[in-house]
Amino acid sequence: MSRLPVSLSMSSSVTASCSLLLFTVGLVGQAHADSMSALIAQKSVQSDFSARYTPSYSAVPSAKVSTRSTIQRAGTYRSNSASTPPVIQTSYRYPEVVRQAPAVMPAFLSGNYDNVDSEYLPLLSSAEMQSSLAAREVVSTARKMALNERAIIQGGCWDYLNAVFKRAGVTRDTIHKGTYGQGPYANSGEIEVGDWLYYINHGYNGVEHSGLFVGWVDERAKQALILSYAGENRREPARYRVYDLSNVYQIMRPSV
């Protein structure tokens, strides 16, 4: 009889706990249902908004791509008009190339020289072969003394050319006369092969100098080939060099 109240008490506690649990689950389920209802309503509103404010675009038609080749194959082209076949020339001749014969130096210029550049040997040969008799004697005598004999003359440029004219057996006539500082200076057209020139040496401190004119290397630029003798106890033979003849103030020409 004493155990019955305890059983009843435990049964009442269990019943109360179950009721509380069911009540709690019911509340959670109700809250979850309310949340799902709100979410569904929100999605419905968004879908309706998108349907109203999303612009509609017309469908772009798909492009049609043709894989057919448009390349015209050889032999398939047909012309509506009659065409004349091209004329093939088989008798073509290439233009002839004009070649100049190499300059042949005379025997008296066939040696090796250190006092004349080889590129000026044709000019020296022309001066000796195409000048007047008096000029030819002077040019050939000067060439022998400079290249063959390598003569050394006591004194300077004037003494050397004076010896050349004497050995050639010619006299000299003054064609143009000026002064070193004031001129007048000769034009290039006044100068001839074999002339004894006095000029300003622009390549050596602008001093006065004299030399034997051989020919123009560049007449427009006043560049000429000159036989020059340095002297001044250098013990060197005369040499052929290019000088600037912008200021020639005296010309003496050989004569017989």
What profile does the largest beta sheet have?
6 strands, antiparallel
Q: What is the correct CATH architecture of the domain at 114-255?
A: Alpha-Beta Complex
The helix-and-strand class reads: alpha+beta
Distance between the termini: 184 Å
Annotated CATH topology of the domain at 114-255: endopeptidase fold (from Nostoc punctiforme)
CATH class of the domain at 114-255: Alpha Beta
**Number of helical segments with 4 or more residues:** 4
State mean pLDDT (0 to 100 scale): 75
Structure description:
The chain is of the alpha+beta class and 256 residues long. The protein has a domain at 114-255: endopeptidase fold (from Nostoc punctiforme). Helices cover 34% and strands 18% of the residues. The protein contains four helices and six strands. A six-stranded antiparallel β-sheet has the order 1-6-2-3-4-5. Helix 2 packs antiparallel against helix 3 and helix 3 (133-148) packs across helix 4. The chain is globular.
SSE blueprint:
Blueprint: H1 4-53, H2 121-129, H3 133-148, H4 157-168, E1 171-177, E2 196-201, E3 207-218, E4 223-228, E5 239-244, E6 248-255
Helix pairs in contact: 2-3, 3-4
